[in-house]
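Protocol step 4 of 6: structure prediction from sequence.
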Amino acid sequence: MTLIVGLGNPDSKYKNNRHNVGFMVIDKLVNDHNCTHISKASFRGELYKSKDILFLKPCTYMNLSGESVRAVSDYYKPERIIVVHDDLDLPFGTLRFKLGGGHGGHNGLRSIDSHIGKEYIRVRIGIGKPEHKGDVANFVLSDFPKSQNELLKSILDTSFQATYGLINEELSTICSKFTLKALG
């Protein structure tokens, strides 16, 4: 079984925020794969299943995402975990993949690392950086500008394909097929 986790914040006011690109990918995966909603209160997230694939959107808010991932992992014991998330260190439009590594200051990853360790695959979607370092929170919690909507759609489509491809293909194969340099 594979668990695919998209990181984001659950309230509708965050729906189109940069920090919610993980949720955006999960929404598309769930909509395209005849999924059954199987959430339980103890999972602390929205959980869906299609065959032997689980799709999770933690409802704990970003900083506590690991609590939801741990609850689902303890219950289902997935063989592989894939986490889709925004990445400030990558320019907008960049798509990268890696296994393990540091959290890079991302509080959602920090939480997951503290609950299940670092050995999971990461789908890193570049959102760019704010002009001033002190504006990070406002930047990630703001919507993408309208000027980026077309590129965002393309990036999300590629992210969706790559994430789904990770279920059956090796990480190195997905890296060679789907890694994107900045499009913006």
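Step 5 (inspection) to follow. The mean pLDDT is 94.
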